[in-house]
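In response to reviewer comment 3 from the previous cycle, which asked for concrete evidence that the modeling workflow produces usable outputs, we include below a single protein chain processed end to end. The sequence was submitted unchanged, and the resulting structure tokens are shown without manual editing.
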Amino acid sequence: MPEHTTLSPTIHDDHRHVLTITVHVNERPVHLHGHDVTGLEIKQAAIAQGVPIQLDFILVEELGHDRTKPITDVDRVHVTDHSRFLANDGDDNS
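The workflow returned the following structure tokens.
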């Protein structure tokens, strides 16, 4: 009987699929794993992927029509490929 092997890098041992979502932070693409993440996870992923921000930056979700929503590190956010965020140091000297 042939040995049965499966190659599936997108499935963990608990059989859940890992879904990659691409959001934008400061106009740069950031890849996240799954739809439900925290504000801290968004900032950590952005930093790891080269977005020039820091963990203590303020994160704001752009909702469209000139509306925004502040996101704290512990806030859970449902993200899609259309989600956009701004992260800044809070210094309003621009």
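Confidence is low (pLDDT under 50) at residues 4-13. We consider this sufficient to address the reviewer's concern, and the full set will be provided in the supplementary archive.
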